[in-house]
Specification:
GO terms for molecular function: DNA binding. Pfam families: ROK. Keywords: Carbohydrate metabolism, DNA-binding, Transcription, Transcription regulation. Helix content is about 45%, strand content about 20%. It is of the alpha/beta class. The protein has three domains: about 70 residues, Winged helix-like DNA-binding domain superfamily/Winged helix DNA-binding domain (Arc Repressor Mutant, subunit A, Orthogonal Bundle), CATH 1.10.10; about 130 residues, ATPase, nucleotide binding domain (Nucleotidyltransferase, domain 5), CATH 3.30.420; about 170 residues, Nucleotidyltransferase, domain 5 (2-Layer Sandwich), CATH 3.30.420. The strands form four sheets. Strands 5-4-3-6-9 form a five-stranded mixed sheet, with helices on both faces. A five-stranded mixed sheet has the order 12-11-10-13-14, with helices on both faces. Strands 1-2 form a two-stranded antiparallel ribbon. Helix 2 packs across helix 3 and helix 10 packs across helix 11. The longest helix is centred in the N-terminal third of the chain and has 27 residues. It is globular. The structure holds zinc ion. Zinc ion (ZN) binds next to loops.
Length: about 400
């Protein structure tokens, strides 16, 4: 077995090393070859070889810079060469498809939103392909060399196989989106659930860049989480969504669409929160919420101005999420917890409730130094898809394809 796997093993090492070097140039460029060799812990000869290949492929370029350590002549440093490379970053949401062209630095070149009706006589797969074709044709003149397609969406996704098993809003059964797009365009295709892809975006571009262990909880129409452990997205090769939303928190609670009762999502999703508030309003004639339409914004604002029902509802959800987080804290010992939610508007009430539950229920050694804060990105947009491409460059998988031309 060992001899069989030997060539693959060498390719794997080459891929990993190239990814590490690319990442270091992205992070520290302009950087000298000597410094690269030190940081990557690779021999100077290996660095020279990897860098030469990247230079020939126009993925990095040389530039003169003043090395802060020396007062002599400017040194030759390496920086990424990203402008001549584009990729498509897409996001499918209820009734719409967002299509963005970005360069390899993730910078936005152009973005469009097109309708993707939830009900149609034509299969979703062929409609997505038509929209992507049309997008490329419309912007033919602006296209640089295309490297990849990355798509984020809600649903049950097999990332490795590129198959979307099920989606909310759309009638989908085992849609082979990755294969179909790869055959159509000849490009590598990356597909991921939108929550873990968002977590990856926070870790690569957002406020969690310095943290190696991060838990991100999304409280919106659905409740779910993404986890970065030791700098890597947990279950990155498969369905990376952490399904905290379907953990039972109330055995006598209401029915959930997953088939169980009293799931976290049935008490903490935005829809359930508004329904709960509506229900409790009848017994609270003094609440300021009677004088305005009930929305997540009005609920948050009422809580911030001291309305006791609104405060109670938000403190309640903070406690539920906090108790679930306490379990996760004891497993992953994160430096950072990020909350992606419209409830961040009432962070002053929500966060203390969460932290109290975490401090009460998790080990002090695991919880005392963590910070809890909002995600940088609010509406996830196409940055999560851009993060999939960045991640594929850093891991070396996409990078090696580009090196091979
Ligand atoms: Zn459920």
């Amino acid at each position: 077995m060992l001899t069989d796997s030997q060539p693959g093993h060498i390719d794997q090492i080459k891929q990993t090393n190239a990814g590490v070097v690319y990442r270091l140039i992205d992070r520290f460029g302009p950087i000298s070859r000597i410094e690269l060799s030190r940081l990557a812990q690779l021999a100077p000869a290996s660095i020279t070889k990897i860098v030469r290949e990247m230079l020939e492929a126009h993925l990095v370029q040389e530039t003169e810079f003043q090395d802060p350590g020396s007062r002599g002549r400017p040194a030759v440093g390496l920086i990424l060469d990203t402008i001549a490379w584009h990729f498509l970053a897409a996001r499918i949401h209820q009734g719409k498809l967002t299509l963005a062209l970005r360069d390899l630095s993730s910078k936005l070149v152009l973005e469009e939103q097109v309708a993707l009706e939830t009900a149609s006589s034509e299969p979703l797969l062929s409609r997505i392909i038509q929209q992507i074709d049309a997008f490329f044709i419309r912007h033919q003149k602006k296209l640089e060399r295309l490297t990849a397609i990355a798509i984020t969406l809600p649903g049950i996704v097999d990332t490795r196989a590129g198959v979307v098993h099920r989606m909310p809003w759309y009638d989908v059964t085992d849609m082979a989106l990755g294969d179909a797009l790869e055959q159509r365009t000849g490009l590598p295709v990356y597909i991921q659930h939108d929550i873990p892809a968002w977590t990856l975006a926070e870790s690569l571009f957002g406020d969690a860049q310095e943290a190696k262990d991060v838990i991100q909880v999304v409280i919106d129409d659905n409740v779910g989480a993404g986890i970065i452990t030791h700098g890597q997205l947990l279950h990155r090769g498969s369905s990376a969504l952490v399904e905290i939303g379907h953990t039972q928190v109330d055995p006598w609670g209401g029915a959930c669409y997953c088939g169980n009762h009293g799931c976290l999502e049935t008490v903490a999703s935005i829809t359930s929160l508004l329904a709960l508030t509506q229900q409790r309003l009848q017994a609270m004639p003094g609440s300021t919420l009677h004088h305005q339409p009930l929305t997540i914004e009005s609920l948050c604002d009422a809580a911030l101005t001291g309305d006791s029902l609104a405060r109670d509802v938000i403190t309640g959800v903070g406690g539920h999420i906090g108790r679930t987080l306490a379990l996760m804290v004891n497993i992953f010992a994160p430096q950072k917890i990020l909350i992606g939610s419209p409830l961040n508007r009432a962070a002053d009430i929500l966060y203390p409730a969460m932290l109290t539950a975490i401090r009460q229920q998790a080990l002090p050694a695991y919880s005392q130094s963590l910070t809890l804060g909002p995600t940088r990105y609010h509406d996830a947009g196409t940055m999560p898809a851009a993060a999939l491409v960045k991640d594929a460059m850093y891991s070396g998988t996409l990078l090696v394809k580009l090196l091979q031309g």
